[in-house]
């Protein structure tokens, strides 16, 4: 699993501070990680995780939960197209 949040990566690696806000989420990830033969979480730069960053930023502006069942949200399409365009210019 990859994340651009170094603080979360450090919390995962240390597993010493169970009083953080994200501790329940990390516990759930740990529980699900046992379903895999191997599992690791690593830090990546935000630019390498741009679509996820845009989606998270969009989600932080919402007052209610949004669900999509038969369509793709425009924020996903836009972020993937932007990411694809940036990747095509890499030499």
Automatic annotation (TrEMBL):
It comes from the Eukaryota. Residues 1-59 form the RNase H type-1 domain. It holds the Pfam family RVT_3. GO terms for molecular function: nucleic acid binding; RNA-DNA hybrid ribonuclease activity. This is RNase H type-1 domain-containing protein. It comes from Triticum aestivum.
């Amino acid at each position: 699993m990859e994340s651009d949040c170094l603080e979360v990566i450090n919390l995962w690696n240390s597993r010493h501070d169970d009083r953080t806000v994200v501790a329940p989420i990390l516990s759930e990830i740990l529980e699900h990680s046992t379903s895999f033969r191997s599992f690791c979480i690593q830090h990546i730069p935000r630019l390498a995780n741009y679509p996820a960053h845009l989606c998270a930023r969009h989600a932080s502006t919402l007052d209610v939960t949004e669900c999509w069942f038969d369509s793709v949200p425009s924020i996903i399409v836009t972020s993937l197209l932007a990411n694809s365009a940036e990747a095509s210019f890499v030499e």
